[in-house]
Amino acid sequence: MKKRSFFPSFYLILITVIMYLPILFVMIYSVNLSKLSSVWTGFSLKWYRDLFRDRNVGTALVNSLILGGVSSLAAAVIGTLGAIGTARTSFRGKGAMEYIATLPMMTPEIILGMIFLAFFSLLGLPFGMSTLIISHTAFCIPYVFMQVKARLAGMDKSYEEAARDLGAGRARVFFDITLPLIMPGIVSGMLLSFAMSFDDVVISIFVTGVSVNTLPILIYTQLKTGVTPKVNALCTLMFLATLLIVVLSALIGRLGNKKKA
Amino acid sequence: MKKTLSLILVLTLCLTLFAGCGGSGKAESTAPAEDTQSAPAPDPSGGTLNIYTWAEMFDQDVLDGFEAETGIKINYTNFDYDETMLEKLEAAKGGDYDLVIADDYIIETVIAEGLAQKLDKSKIPNFGNINPVYQGQFYDPTDEYTVPYGAGVQTIAYDPAAVSVPVTGYADLWDESFRDSIAITANFRVMLGMALKVLGYSYNTNDLAQIDEAAELFYKLADNIRLIKDDNVQDDLISGEVSAAVMYTSQVTMAKLNKPELEVVYPKEGIGFGIMGMFVPSQAPNADAAHLFIDYILRPEISAKSFEYLGYYCTTKAADDLISEEFKDFLVLPAEFKAEDMEMIGNISPEAAAREEEIWIEFRNRCGQ
Amino acid sequence: MKRKLSGGNAAFLAPMYLFTVVFLIGPFVYMLVLSFLTRAETWGVVNSFTLRNYRRILEPLYFNTFVESVKLAVLVTALVAALGYPFGYYMAKLPPKRRGTMLMLVMIPFYTSSLMRLYGWIIVLRANGLLDKLLMALHITSAPLKILYTYPAVAVGMVYALLPFMMLSVYSSVEKMDWALVEAARDMGATPARAFLTVTLPLTMPGLMTGVILTFVPSMGLFFVADILGGNKIVLVGSLIQEQLMKVHDQPFAAALSVIMMLMMTVMIWLYRRVTGSGEMEGVI
Lengths: 261, 369, 285
What we know:
The structure holds three protein chains of three kinds.
Chain A: H1 6-28, H2 46-53, H3 55-88, H4 94-106, H5 109-123, H6 129-152, H7 158-165, H8 170-199, H9 202-207, H10 215-220, H11 229-260
Helix pairs in contact in A: 2-11, 3-6, 3-8, 4-6, 6-8, 7-8
Chain B: H1 2-35, E1 48-53, H2 60-70, E2 73-78, H3 82-91, E3 99-103, H4 104-112, E4 147-158, E5 182-184, H5 188-198, H6 208-219, E6 225-228, H7 233-239, E7 244-248, H8 249-258, E8 263-265, E9 273-279, H9 287-297, H10 300-310, H11 325-331, H12 350-368
Parallel strand pairs in B: 1-2, 1-3, 5-6, 5-7
Antiparallel strand pairs in B: 3-9, 4-7, 4-8, 4-9
Helix pairs in contact in B: 5-6, 6-12, 7-8
Chain C: H1 7-34, E1 38-39, E2 45-46, H2 52-57, H3 60-92, H4 96-107, H5 114-125, H6 130-137, H7 151-175, H8 179-187, H9 192-221, H10 223-229, H11 237-246, H12 251-276
Antiparallel strand pairs in C: 1-2
Helix pairs in contact in C: 3-7, 3-9, 7-9, 7-10, 8-9, 9-12, 11-12
């Protein structure tokens, strides 16, 4: 047994390293003097300077964080409740509703963007952050819904029943028993949702308004000039920031645990 | 583990909220922009100018200079494809945006749909600075709606060290020695257009028989194609992934600046060139600011700076002399360049477009085999 | 266990149903209607009913594109399952303290722009790039592989993009598993392989299923990976739709292509559910 336990760690590390490989190159070329990734002309922080001069980037980053945060949170609430409700009930028409709720996942982004544009303009909604949040929530719900549903599948109902037998109210059972049990599903769904929203460009371009640019829009629309290493610099900084958050929270968590013990 | 997870969640949320607070201040200052649609009397000495075009079209200094001079705040948002822009403009019924920069062919449709307004040339004293080569084109024959902002041609660039035959035109790309080593752009009108040109036809033919004849020739090119893409082709040419490439002007500029030994050919069959144009949507909330901006861009020194940044042919004649030596060869049309030999890619009939798209899919399938 | 719709449960379902009714039904009806209309001469559509758009899909050119897209999606899904299942499984067996960190470590790369990550892959895979140098240094190959802009490069890019969907789905399924059942099987003399096949796999099936669906469905639409890493030479349905909209300006045909694509996914998911026979998963599209 001892000998075999080496493999899982090796596998986890190997795959993780491969996943970080492309990012490594994004980072390396952020300090390349040349605009091209095919030539290395020397070390330079030029692109970082350009990045900080560009006011559009800051605004777009803020917009993207708000959009990703709000829509993944909304999707988490709606999707989780929906999954629980679905698991507990059965009635005519339920399947159809769920099917429609998960359709955005199956729809090609460009069509989704187009039909949302047509629909919102029919409703007379002003294009901007609100339309962005609605459409992002729409395509994030299926991810949370399915993650939570898989988690609920075959879950031991005896905990909930035991709690209720012991006199816990509905709300109490939900927050103390059900929610903690499905938490990993919600978290996975939210992490995926945020990633999807934070990276979406096609739908966003269609449903955004005059005053809201998101980060992916800024990156993908550099068609006429080619993406500049400014974007490499931006991605590098964001990557390092995320990494810092994770490492810090892991450290804080560990400290907290030690204190308790 | 749950502790770690919830900590991460809390931290992420805090970050988002923090971003939200930082952003709400900004959102407030830009909020009037959304309402400008209903504000009838725009103030040319203030307010907001909503520019809608691709990203990275202007040097930040150029935009900052305009804001400092006029007190107008520029609000710069982006689209990916011309068609997306048209969809958005249709949805806004020609409103929301003050100034749009897009490709020639779509401007023809924009004007036909009544989504652009005639320019008030009394507000554009620098109108005369435009290079006449780029005026009077199919999309705006009498120059009533548009001012050109940059032009490009699709030329052949190749690495002489990796190519054994002399290249003078499109026809040479069919040579067997190029097997699996050519890059082309993903614009099927221009690519199938190469075959049409080799046969002596027009890029814009609506004759399905001519298109089918060109298709047969075009399919024979499939074996030579290593790569079809619109962005960063210069990297593939420099790294040796391909030995010849049909590419856009801005890419040629970048490639030559980094590898001067590359050869650039204006195909002898004639080339299709494209112009990007600035226009003011019909219901632009702040048309006056848009006119001010157009006039600002047409100043020789501003144009020179903009085109050096953009890497496309300079469409402001008055700026040609101000472009630095480093860029001159790439941004100013060569003197021997005959405008009569150029044919622009215009709109074709729905049947012809559908047929060309089918040919394009078939061609790509053959490239992939 | 299932109950009829009661007040309490209706409260759970209300947000999702409300959202669906208000924001989704309209757009999808619009799409369906659009697919039966005729394109206008220059731009937009005219309101005349036609079946032409659907008939056109049966032409070999389009039909084959559908077949090719499904083939690639199946290949990618199989690879993702093969690589992602063990990852999610091992991740769930980590000590609890490390799981959360690992989960985030898996996700971080995906918070970087997908376009930039694809450019990163181009640098890794290009002629005389990292992969070539590595293989040649190890004397596995002697000349550049020229793997970039080929089918394998597309597969690599797609597997990479979709792996986290599988990892996370399997992870949350394995994490809740009752290990006592596996131990019981082992105590009764089952080999590790047998215990895995008869106990672990069936218990984690909902996670695997979710992973498969979450991989298969997007893989049909990830045409930009094929365009960038495959040099535009592998035509997928997503790219057909994109070009119909953005180059040919035929919105009704693009809508019809989308409708068929979605129908096809629905049928394949339904079949998959029937074959793997997980009744618990009812309702998951």
